[in-house]
Design a protein that fits this description.
With 226 residues, the protein is of the alpha+beta class. Among the domains are: 39 residues, no CATH class; 118 residues, Mannose-Binding Protein A, subunit A (Mannose-Binding Protein A, Chain A, Roll), CATH 3.10.100.10. It is 38% helix and 17% strand. It is built from five helices and ten strands; from the N terminus they run E-E-H-H-H-E-E-H-E-H-E-E-E-E-E. A hairpin with a 4-residue loop joins strand 1 and strand 2. Bound molecules: alpha-D-mannopyranose (MAN) and calcium ion. The site of calcium ion (CA) has 8 residues, from strand 9.
């Protein structure tokens, strides 16, 4: 290809062609049928269209993202979520104050109430239910250790009253992690020992099965929603 300055023309030398018509055909295929400047790459136009459409799509997507973000974080929306948060926070505060004032102890997302009088297992459970709680469900080593701190014999929310030998927590879940004292549970001397007390609190494994009609202190648990 030679650019001729004087004549302001582009002269393209495509090779030796026998006649003028063959030369014209070759030239047309080089510069494009409509005379527009085209790249020499086959399908170049298509590539350009695809690239331009892709860019337009990207711009559209970005615009959509920005407008959505603006809409969602509008002052009204922020106000509403802040209001919800503070309302929830206030309820939580009132709840916590209530339990603390009634002498409950907070430990690992639950409140616990330790009775100062003794009752049967069922009456103990009813007392917890009346307080909006239930007998304690022990589901971790930490919670088990927590119960031992009180150094008292207390009912917990575990029983096999429904089916002998099938231990269930008061929320209906089966027993998975247990802390039975050596030799327990034993239905001692053929007695019907269907309710569980923390008895041997100086031992990591402190549980004992006893007759549900015995009278014991008890420990209620109220799980706090996070
Ligand atoms: C008492 C009761 C029983 C327990 C035995 C252990 O009799 O608490 O439940 O198994 O002591 O010696
Ligand atoms: Ca026993």
């Amino acid at each position: 290809m030679v650019y001729d300055k004087d004549e302001s023309e582009i002269t393209i030398e495509i090779g030796n062609f026998p006649d003028a018509s063959a030369r014209s055909v070759a030239l047309k295929s080089y510069i494009g049928e409509d005379g527009e400047a085209a790249t020499a790459v086959p399908g170049g136009k298509l590539h350009r269209y695809v690239a331009v459409s892709f860019c337009l799509l990207c711009i559209l997507q970005a615009a959509l993202n920005i407008s959505l973000r603006l809409a969602l974080s509008s002052p009204q929306n922020i106000d509403a979520s802040c209001k919800n948060l503070t309302e929830r926070d206030n309820l939580r505060r009132i709840n916590f104050a209530h339990y603390f004032n009634q002498g409950w102890v907070y430990f690992h997302d639950s409140f616990y109430y330790i009775s100062s009088i003794k009752k049967t297992w069922q009456d103990s459970r009813d007392d917890c239910l009346q307080r909006g709680a239930d007998l304690i469900i022990i589901n971790s080593k930490e919670e088990q250790e927590f119960t031992r701190r009180y150094k008292k014999i207390m009912w917990i929310g575990l029983t096999d009253r429904e089916t002998e030998g099938v231990w269930k927590w008061v929320d209906g879940t089966p027993l998975t992690t247990s802390f039975w004292y050596f030799g327990e549970p034993n239905n001692y001397h053929g007695r019907n020992e269907d309710c569980i007390e923390i008895k041997y609190h100086d031992n990591g494994n402190s549980w004992n099965d006893v007759v549900c009609e015995n009278e014991n202190l008890w420990i209620c648990e109220k799980k706090m929603a996070l």
